[in-house]
Design brief:
Layout (H helix, E strand, L loop, with lengths): L1 H30 L4 H10 L2 H23 L4 H21 L11 H29 L8
Length: about 140
């Protein structure tokens, strides 16, 4: 189990960098009036709401990982700060659509992003308690 933890920890940062770059590309292409790329993803997922859910999840996880490495706070303080930053990023992205003629604001998109944030937070806390109680690894300590 420890090997799985180390393996996932090693490659998660690379995955998050690629995922954030992909989300930024989709958002920027849509803002510039080239929605064809995001339309493919929406067809693949079934709805753009799933894309907002995934974006909320990935942004929260990425912000958590960055803050976890940069700050020496306990897990709950880091999760709270991660939620604050991720909330700001998602709200900024959605509210900036009010000023762009190629996009439109949708409150349901924001709600789906919030649900993704909440699920990510729940998983982070559950993983923390699982590793702490079952295996004896604390993700409070940096390697």
């Amino acid at each position: 189990m420890l090997e799985l933890y180390k393996f996932c920890n090693k490659y998660l940062n690379s995955f998050l960098i690629l995922a954030i770059a992909g989300l930024a590309f989709l958002s920027l292409s849509r803002s510039l009036g080239i929605p064809v790329y995001s339309a493919y993803i929406e067809v693949l997922l079934g709805s753009d709401k799933w894309l907002h859910f995934i974006a909320g999840f990935i942004v929260t996880l990425a912000v958590f990982r960055v803050l976890r490495r940069a700050l020496s706070f306990n897990i709950f303080r880091t999760v709270l700060m991660s939620l604050t930053f991720a909330l700001f990023i998602l709200c900024f992205d959605e509210l900036s659509q009010l000023m762009n003629v190629n996009r439109r604001f949708d409150l349901n998109d924001l709600i789906c992003g919030f649900i993704g944030m909440a699920l990510c937070t729940l998983i982070i806390i559950l993983i923390h308690y699982f590793y702490r109680s079952k295996i004896g690894i604390s993700i409070d300590k940096q390697e």
